[in-house]
Amino acid sequence: MTKRVGRERDTAVVVGAGPNGLAAAVTLAQAGLKVTVFEAADEIGGGVRSGELLAPGLLFDHCSSTHVMGAGSPYLRTLDVAAHGLEWCWPEIDLAHPVDSGGAGALYRSLARTADGLGADGPAWRRLFGAPAADAEVLTDAVMKPLLRVPRHPVRLARFGLRALQPATALAGRFRTEEARGLYGGVAAHLFGPLNGPAAASVGLMIIAAGHRFGWPVAKGGSAAIARALAGLLTAAGGRIETGVTIRSLSQLPPAATVLLDLAPSAAAAVIGDRLPSRVRRAYTRYRHGPAAFKLDLAVEGGVPWRADACRRAGTVHLGGGFAQIADAERQIHRGRMPERPFLLVSQQYLADPGRSAGDVHPVSAYAHVPHGYDGDATAAMLAQFERFAPGTRERILGLTATSTAELERGNANFVGGDIIGGANTPLTLTMRPRIALDPYATGVPGVYLCSASTPPGAGAHGMCGHNAARSALRALGVH
């Protein structure tokens, strides 16, 4: 039976209208609370905003673009997001990774088709990813929640964990071809950290397994559709959103039974102020952020002229060369050095969602992994990576805009120093962030919770940080 809070305590406030703040708000509103969301920007969405750029009709995503963990989110899968306009679109090839020989590894939603395309490494790919892909729904349900609890499927989780706890270099050693090693290595690089450390295999293993189950889709009409769908669900449940409101202190908020903060830990510490216990304040203010991203948005006539055909059909292309080159670049950014050949994630969302293009001019976005707070210009290095695998790209670019790490943070205060993943992915913080605690969402102040990507399970447009934090708040209120 659901226990309702008293009439005088049936309200909730959420600060921040990114995907986690909105997911938290929907969870609270659907549990019967009256929810108000305050967002500092003039539009909702945080990391899932979209808009025209460079030319009329060219639609770009401001940050998050491809949503394997969004489509696979245990929470979003329970919501009727389609009724509020969210439609997933898949490209023919989810991911391609070109190598210097001119070939490319290609990741399809189909495990069999992916393995068949990897030739001699096909059997190794099946052995490594077959079981996790088959268990993908069970695994996402488990790893996208706090891990300090008794799992529902301990054997499956343990089998996954034995591989996930290894260095990514160990798993890459199972492959013989540069195509397979690069394909795995590019996904492993989503860790934003050294690939030879403990548990460095975990991120790549989980994303590939989820990709074989859910694919790597984009949101039709731009990633902002995710925020609009969550906002629609919130409104339908009686909640409301106020934009253009910057919250600097809890004292600005109306009385509420619970408050959830979709903020970076240091910002949350500032908002909570002297009420925050000293041990929590130390953890929040010393919270370690990860390497950063430097973004290019390109208007490309006729698309990028990739040498490898698979790249011309792939929604996402990873540029980094062979596994050893990727590992070296990630090691350098982790040490605060800018590599000559940075790892790039290229998004060609228009292949799945043609409405983003303007005739034969197509929007192409790319992120380079760069050191935290990098204050240089990565444009030349990024374009050189394009030319390496797609000679003639420069001649097709009709317009270009670069977004530095500082500009990323100005556009979204949670991207501290250009860190778009909510914190450094160390072996400890992969499972327990932003501090060691039984409830990672609790701030130590009764009724106040943290729900940003700096809480488990981390970055992504999956809404799980917000949903998990809201569930924690509801348990404290006696709402089940």
UniProtKB/TrEMBL annotation:
Pfam families: NAD_binding_8. Coiled coil: none annotated. SUPFAM superfamilies: FAD/NAD(P)-binding domain. This is NAD(P)/FAD-dependent oxidoreductase. It comes from Streptomyces endophytica.
